[in-house]
């Protein structure tokens, strides 16, 4: 079992930056692929980024967002720069065991509660 707790969401102006954190507990953190997803009202959950053996970014955030992890702290981060109003969503941290696939939400085993990110114009 893995418990994930997200923090760092909030309200920022367009062009600003925000760093999300996801603290994990319950199992060996390094044994999991970690991912970030987001969901805006009326939209399906969208892949943002994942980090395991390889690192991936969704097309809409590539070049602006950076995923990182600190295994010693059992924490994964999402640094978000050059934020746009269309980045507004609830952001979720997720974990899955190593294996094929990392960019679809139903592949993940554990989820955080989500944190709201709102980008104003």
What does this entry look like structurally?
It is a single chain. It is built from no helices and eleven strands. The protein is mostly beta strands. The radius of gyration is 13 Å and the shape is globular. 33% of the residues are buried.
Fold topology:
Elements: E1 3-7, E2 10-13, E3 18-25, E4 32-39, E5 46-51, E6 55-57, E7 65-70, E8 75-80, E9 89-97, E10 110-111, E11 115-120
Parallel strand pairs: 2-11
Antiparallel strand pairs: 1-3, 3-8, 4-5, 4-9, 5-6, 7-8, 9-10, 9-11
Keyword list:
52% strand, single chain, 11 strands, mainly beta, 121 residues
Strand content: over 45%
Extract low-pLDDT stretches: none
Mean pLDDT: 94
Main sheet?
7 strands, mixed
Q: Gyration radius, to the nearest Å?
A: 13 Å
The span between the termini is 40 Å
* Principal-axis shape: globular
> What structural class do you assign from the helix and strand content?
mainly beta
- Count of extended strands: 11
- Number of helical segments? 0
> Residue share in helices?
under 10%
Order of helices and strands: EEEEEEEEEEE
